[in-house]
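A favour between colleagues. Tell me how you read the following sequence-structure pair.

===
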Amino acid sequence: MANDPFFEAHHRTRQQQHQCMMMIQQPNNDDDVVPEHTCAQQQQQEQQNQSPKLAASSTSQNATPVLPAFVALLLLVTSIAPAALCHPLQGSNHTFRPNHELLKLRRVRAHLKKINKPSVKTIQSPDGDLIDCVLSHQQHAFDHPKLRGHIVLDPPERPKGNHTNGEAERVIESFQLWSDSGEACPEGTVPIRRTTEEDILRASSIQRFGRKPRPVRRDSTGSGHEHAVVFVNGDQYYGAKASINVWAPRVTDEFEFSLSQMWVIAGSFGKDLNTIEAGWQVSPQLYGDNYPRFFTYWTTDAYQTTGCYNLLCSGFIQINNRIAIGAAISPRSAFNRRQFDIGLMIWKDPKHGHWWLEFGSGLLVGYWPANMFSHLRNHASMVQFGGEIVNTRSRGYHTDTQMGSGHFAEEGFRKSAYFRNLQVVDWDNSLLPLRNIHLLADHSNCYNIWQGTNNVWGTYFYYGGPGRNVRCP
């Protein structure tokens, strides 16, 4: 972020901007180039327009011959002073370029206009979010070249098999904060979290806004990404299902995050990686707060140029008017108290081949069209469940950012975070238990994982940790 002149200019003093902003010619449209008008040039033009009036005034008042000399001196001083005002930090390393800032701000606003579609209703969430109810056919997904003219599909056949939530008296399904008031989006619309200028300005650049930091690998040693996950591979997978315990872990650096999610993966962990992801995350940079939020992600080239979080780029087609992707989840679990989780399922429609997303008990959120992908156009080769954090080491040691509840796996129910009822979808659109399970905790002194099986939770695991501690320096 520090290397992007746009973000440097944005955070400079508003005093400088006030002194020079009024002297910039505003263009007529987004394609115009802002002309270079300095403060001095603007002032000189004003002086030329005013000088006949001054002359007339001096004549009418029978001024002495000394007055024109005084006026000339005054004009000389005022033509120099505004230029100095535009550069109050001359002699320092700071140079204020209002033209450049305006051009960048125009780019931000053009991007906002692209992703924030007109709404028929707007709902104010208690956490400060604005949820826009956008007509389904006007959503951002259809801006993608591959989706123009796409007709939204009817819901597909759900996978066959065990759909139990298990232990209903102990675990309550969690939903979203914006809908707690009873407000809802009308039929025929989809709820979309409105993106603000501040959201984009927190990113390292407009181009990287809404994308994961690079590089990202499953084996994350040295990349700054740390995982505690269960995964299966070596077969053909057509989906995955789990219930994910929701917490609000502490994230100690603006550029770090903590998330818990499912990954549906195909391709290699190189430039051709395809993934579809869903879960919850705490990301101060992306959302500006520390609420856990329901999120999705997809990419077809290992997070390089394709895909994004939520609906921040075109691709995912939403059909549900009750779930807002990117909105805060409510309620959340508390240590040694009531536990809350969200049910998630991703699966490939056997008829059309698209990848569908279900939230909770049967709420279809929408789908990723198959033609958006290369490897995932056919099937997945790996399914992964678990937690991930980013460790920037911004203070010279391991981050204090928590994963899950912030407690290690061995502490168990009501203290550790968990996934339960882990299943995969096979070629016959059937839900099956996991086989040949692998566990990965690439920094186990910071975040660990413990897996088990029983008749109520099926395949499950506890995971997470506090980050920096005596064994994780």
Notes: The first strand starts at residue 121 and ends at 124.
